[in-house]
Amino acid sequence: MTHPPPARGPGTGRRDERRRPPAGPRLADGPGPRPRRRPAPPAGRPGPLADGRSAAGDRGRPAARLAHRDPPRRPPPAPPRPRRLPPRGNPVRRLGIALLAIVFVLTLFAGRLIQLQGLESGSYRALAAQQRDKTIALPALRGDITGADGQALAMTVQTYTVFADPVMMTAAQQQQVAGALAGPLGMTAAAILALIQHPTSPQYVVLARDVLAQAGHQISALDLPGIGLTPSFARSYPDGDVAANIIGFTGTDSAGNLVGGAGLELADNSLLAGRPGSEQVQIGADGQQIPLAGSRDTPAVNGSGLQLTIVPSLQYDAEQACAQQVARTDADNCTVVIMQPQTGRVLAMAQWPTFNPSTITNAAQATDIAVQDEFQPGSTLKVITAAAAFEHGGQTPMSAYNIPYQISEGGQLIRDAEWAPGERYTIAGIIAHSSNVGMSQVAAHVPPQVQYGYLRAFGLGQPTGIGLPGETPGDLPPVSQWYADTRYTLSFGQGVAVTALQMASVYATIANGGVRVQPTLIEGTTDSSGRYTPAPPPPSRRVIQARTARELLQILQQVPLVNAAGGEPWGIIPGYAIAAKTGTSQESNGKCALCVYGSSYIGMAPGDKPQLVVAVNVQHPRRDGYYGIDVAGPVFYQVMKEALAILKIPPDGATPAKLRLTAP
Amino acid sequence: MISLLVISTTLAQGSFQVTNLQQQDATLARQEQALSQQVAEAQSPALIAAEATQLGMRPNPELTFIDPRTGKTVSGKVSRADEQISVPGYTP
Asked: pTM for the whole thing?
């Protein structure tokens, strides 16, 4: 690399001589290696003379080369010559400079080496690993929701997102691709073509999301240029809107996972969702996994399945009955709650209007009316104050009361819907004929605190514990906030707000001999490995004595008879003794006072050991009457009969108890 | 060296096989899923009710049970409520 020392002058010279072409043509030649090899001739000397073998000439070469790249073309003027000579003559210094330069460069190399291998090694290793390592997300499969009979109400299906890369196809191919995709995607070819021609980003446009597996298969089989599929998961509700209010709906979070948005999908989201896992593998250039390269797996834990107590066919029947009645009476809504009193199982909780879980996107559209809407119950609440009067007011079902046209209690005029002069009822008669005047007199035997305690014990003013999101506790004001007339109006179900499920639970408590079993929707869960675990039995507690419950049941068995005598046979199903209560409440809305009616009918069958409670509430009917028996009665009849048939509950053959309703 | 080559070739072969089988598994899982969804949809009460109505079936207004011990049927009467419901054009 360095130039030969001057001592080797002659040898070098010879070698130079050998390589050098003849002098003459050399001058005529163009540039090339020559200028480098040719020593810089001192000014004024002709070219050929510069080839002299003198040590000076040799020595002068490197120095001259450093100074001028092409000396012969433009010979330097004469004066500078003596000035340039001294550096040529100092090899030690030249060597030193060269060595310094080398050391400097090597230091740079070493520094860079340390930088790459030492200081920044971590980040480079990470970059390399990134290229080679691949983390495969292992999504957890969201658990299914099934009905009591195993029928799937919500299931997770694999779907595809179909996307196009417009750059990958020619204009003619775009037409062709759009035409081929129209069928499987269920879109028009024009719509697909428009998407391809106006992509969201130059090389990517989503043509369709949530494309079902079959259609996705079809598309990938077509092998179209520039069309790709990414797998995704979607929630499918095979029964459509059946039980939608209970199940809720799902949305997709930013990571593409399904998340519950309402109902049980929301309440039991973590149970259903499971835990997504990941797999870390090393891949080759072609995407093939490198064997034995080691992989770190975090296995995904699939979500658990939920089995509900809901009987889908019963739920469907109840929804249909509700839908018909809402249409007929132009009501705001209708709910039907069917409960098994001994177990607290909710067999159906239907409502109309309802919604389609596949199409809605926010919780405001997914109201579960039976637990989220409150209303004034009306006369269906009479049983609670009656129970308190039997147990703490010294009254019996046969205690007799005169029923005047109206009474004034606590500044409130109380009247009955129907009245005849000279009425004198037993408490059984007061409930069977639903006399507010009579009930107010019964309430006078019950201290307010006791009355409040009974209302609370039956579950009013607190969530039922069914475990659905957004449940309202209703509104039962404490005694300290009561007005002078509150104890009387409460006795016939005004001045308190309840939910349809709370009322069903009140009657289930009576049907179960006075023991309240917390309503439940969950029959059991199936974990990811398929092991089924029955749900623990819901908590229960005694609310009223068994005797009181029996007395109430016998009184309630009179109601269908009284109604039938009045031309409303909705509580009569031959072969079954049915206990029931009607309710008609009045509420005010912003526009008018006490103009909104709530019509309800709650019944139990069969006989003295009811296996079913059916609670119907139709809110704000605007046509064809408003009494509970008129509006809610037909829904009860239809649903109860279907329920007895579907659940195969044979007639008990029991005839209703005979109770004296009119006192002498 | 040769045995090393053999080993890694075998392993690569296995890896390809695994990939193939995984694809097959995924395809079959998709099929199973599509079919079970079809079954679930076919089981939906709304669909069954609609198809039964189309075949001319109607819900039985009579609630009748047979007692297997005595061979007698219980109930079977149409209540007054049904007479009221049966009025043409009336939907409860």
From this structure: 0.76
